[in-house]
Amino acid sequence: MNILRLLLSCMLLLAGCATAPPSASLPPAPVILVAIDGFRPDYLDRGVTPNMSRLAAEGVRAQGMRPSFPSLTFPNHYTLVTGMRPDRHGIVNNVMTDPDHPGVVFTLGDRAVNTQPYWWNDAAPLWVSAEKQGVRTATMFWPGSEVEIRGTRPHDWLTFDQAMPSAARVDRVLAWLDRPPAERPRFITLYFDIVDTAGHLSGPDSPELNAAAHEVDAAMGKLVDGLAARGLANANIVVVADHGMAPVSVERVVDLDAVIAPALVRYVWAPGPIAGVEPAAGQAESAVAPLLGRHGHAECWKRGEMPARLHFGSHRRVPAVVCLADTGWTMVSTGSPRRYPIRGGAHGYDPEDPQMAALFIAHGPAFRAGSTVPTFDNVNVYPLLAGLIGVTPDANDGDPAVLAGALK
User: Fold this and answer.
1) Which residue in 167, 235, 284, 357 has the fewest CB atoms around it within 10 Å?
2) DSSP string of 231-281?
3) Nearest of 83, 37, 75 to residue 276 by alpha carbon
């Protein structure tokens, strides 16, 4: 009888082993790329972001992440998901023209224009490469994610709605992860814009900005808790920003009208931290010559003759002359009246300036706990993400070795 019991026990044990699912059959943990527009790395040290500060302490934090030039929203968001600098991927400004499409102006607010694929097709964002390689993706807002790029969209995407609360954006991401494992996205983007808005309106050192950072931090806490509740605490989360923010003032202004008569030029990029200039209709290319060189707190270059460190000036969408103000200064001209008063904060300045530095945090089982990496160029985020989701990357300007030390 004892032998029979022993045999039955062994059979039950073997049966239990046979029915236990092998770990290899479990779906891979998601990779979530979170962008907080205009979030400088030093905002983490203000005591208003306990959730993100914990992610940074438990994971990897960069001393800073250097944006690509120009340090603007659309160019840098596209760099983060393509690994290409704006001069290569073609989104060279938030507002731009293309000589191949005369009379058409790309702006952030004109969806009929900015969702045309030809603006974006110079590079393939990670979700396009992933979908083509059989990896499901979802985008909770991201510049370019509403566009059919090279014939492909994310599996899930939404039309941008600035009024959508931060918490509701997280709810949508978690809803995607409530699907059966085989139907969940493997790569997800999530975007928050309120920190940038507060920085522009009130400045980077304002209570309003701290309140916005705290709201986004609460949403990040909701995301982390929601992942844990779904058994997805092993998700790899990469938190980035596109650029920083610097305070501006009406006392720090460069008047371009004192350099060149506004009738001689056409401002393709309205003067501010940067300006893009073409000769006015009927004017020779030489008409813009007075702009070239340094003018107090601003400097202008011909397209193709910009400093090499900016990696900018060869794309067909770059105007004939590009001007850059010193950080905190604003260029103005009556030839292109400002839509908004000079107040609060701005970006678009030299990426080397620490005030333009962007946030980078990485948290999850792929990353070394409690480590800090030196400041790096944001083109290096793309190869990191491609490796995390197991996608063969497209040609890019990044180097996988730069962030290799952040990985286990």
Assistant:
1) 284
2) T-TT-EEEEE-S---EE--TTSEEEGGGTS-GGGEEEEE-SSSEEEEEEPT
3) 75
Our answer to whether residue 73 is catalytic in this structure is yes
pLDDT, tens only, 139-175: 999 999 999 999 999 999 999 999 999 999 999 999 9
**CATH value at residue 329:** 3.30.1360.180
Helix (H) or strand (E) holding 140: strand 137-140
Pairing of strands 298-302, 293-294: antiparallel
Provide Rg for the chain, Cα atoms: 24
Structure tokens at 165: 């609360």
Which tens digit of pLDDT belongs to each residue from 354-363?
Answer: 999 999 999 9
Instruction: Print the domain residue range for 225.
Output: 27-245+351-406
Out of 19, 49, 73, 375, pick the active-site residue.
73
What is the number of structural domains in the chain?
2
For position 1, what pLDDT does the model report?
41
Alpha helices in 268-353 (DSSP H): none
Model confidence over 316-370: pLDDT tens digits?
999 999 999 999 999 999 999 888 889 999 999 999 999 999 999 999 999 999 9
| Helices 207-229 and 194-202: angle between axes, nearest 10 degrees | 170
Q: Are 158 and 141 in contact (CB under 8 A)?
A: yes
